[in-house]
Design brief:
- By secondary structure, the protein is an all-alpha fold.
- α4 runs antiparallel to α5.
- It is globular, with a radius of gyration of 22 Å.
- It starts with 6 loop residues before the first helix and ends in a 32-residue tail after the last helix.
Length: 350
């Protein structure tokens, strides 16, 4: 009989690498998520039910942020925190119980998008009748213009920023841990899965892979220098799985060393920084500031991250050694490739 792991061991198993983990998640969100996961496992709750619960919690948070009352806004903060705990819980529960499903992947991607969509709508409805900043009480109000600002912040800024940050994180994990240790996927791979699905009786799988293929394609279109680097590596080492194993160790070390400096930006462009900004601006009754932070500050970080990564890929393409491909070797861990407890990182499931 397999010995039950300790809480600390299970927590460390949920981390892929200290390179890509955010401090707040390591010390706050993930431990609480694991406690909830253990509780739901004892109660026999399916991970998908937890994800659905997170959607309703996020919707409740948005409704609370619609109001200007501070206590209702504080309740919104609590509800969104609980939604985020559930988002951490469902993946850990799926790993603990082995209940990983395609529907679960679909719901997981849908959940956080739904939270923020509802929050953007709530902010717009809240601000529409309010005076513009600097205007007197009977002066001009935000009106329909707040929807324009929210569209720029949400659709043209938030969404592409998050997709790019996720892509760079998975690329880093691909070179650090190998293909099985990352979720680095290509549009060609996903298109092949989509094409092989039956045209009848597979509506949801086809919908998922259709959307995910386009998601991957969008990431690829925005990263031309990385695509050139990846194509060169693929041509040299013949298949995706072989790249991190056969690429020269010194080249891989240099890539990871520079890629690692961009990981804090990928973390800032995900949930925590946005949520904290929403909390503060709603409590101060100026949620329009969040939209400006999204458009100005987060976009500046995204542009810097994108330019730095493209420059890295261009220089690493030029640094690829000429000649024969390297003999296969095990993906070794560098001194910096430690988990959050300081132990060597393995290939773990999220």
């Amino acid at each position: 009989m397999q010995e039950e792991k300790t809480f600390k061991q299970m927590l460390n198993d949920s981390f892929k690498s200290a390179d890509t983990e955010e401090w707040l998640d390591v010390h706050f969100t993930r431990p609480i998520g694991l406690m909830f996961a253990l509780m739901w496992r004892r109660l026999g709750v399916h991970p998908n039910a937890v994800t659905i619960l997170s959607i309703f919690l996020g919707l409740g948070a948005a409704i609370m942020f619609y109001h200007t009352d501070v206590w209702l806004n504080l309740l919104g903060v609590l509800l969104l925190m609980l939604a985020n705990f559930c988002d951490s819980t469902d993946g850990q529960l799926a790993r603990l119980t082995g209940q990983k499903t395609l529907i679960g992947r679909m719901l997981d991607g849908f959940a956080s998008n739904m939270w923020f969509f509802c929050i953007y709508v709530a902010i717009c409805l809240r601000l529409m009748p309010q005076p513009l900043p600097g205007a007197h009480a009977l002066g001009p109000v935000w009106g329909a213009w707040i929807w324009v600002l929210a569209f720029i912040a949400g659709v043209l800024s938030h969404s592409p920023q998050g997709a790019l940050a996720d892509y760079y994180r998975q690329i880093h994990l691909f070179f650090l841990l190998g293909d099985k240790g990352s979720e680095f996927n290509t549009s060609d791979e996903q298109q092949a899965i989509y094409d092989n699905l039956p045209k009848h009786g597979a509506f949801w799988p086809r919908a998922f892979y259709y959307n995910y293929t386009n998601y991957c394609r969008g990431q690829e279109m925005r990263t031309p220098n990385f695509q050139k680097l990846y194509e060169a590596l693929l041509e040299r080492y013949h298949n995706k799985e072989s790249i991190p194993e056969q690429v020269p160790e010194e080249w891989r070390r240099r890539f990871l060393e520079r890629s690692r400096t961009l990981m804090p930006f990928t973390n800032l462009l995900t949930f925590n920084a946005r949520a904290i900004t929403i909390y503060i601006t709603c409590l101060l009754n100026c949620p329009w500031v969040y939209l400006l932070v999204e458009i100005v500050v987060f976009n500046m970080m995204a542009v810097y991250m994108h330019n730095a990564h493209e420059r890295l890929c261009r220089e690493m393409l030029e640094a690829l050694p000429e000649g024969q491909q390297q003999p296969p070797s095990t993906v070794e861990q560098t001194d910096d490739s430690q988990d959050v407890a300081g132990q060597p990182v393995g290939v773990n499931a999220m």
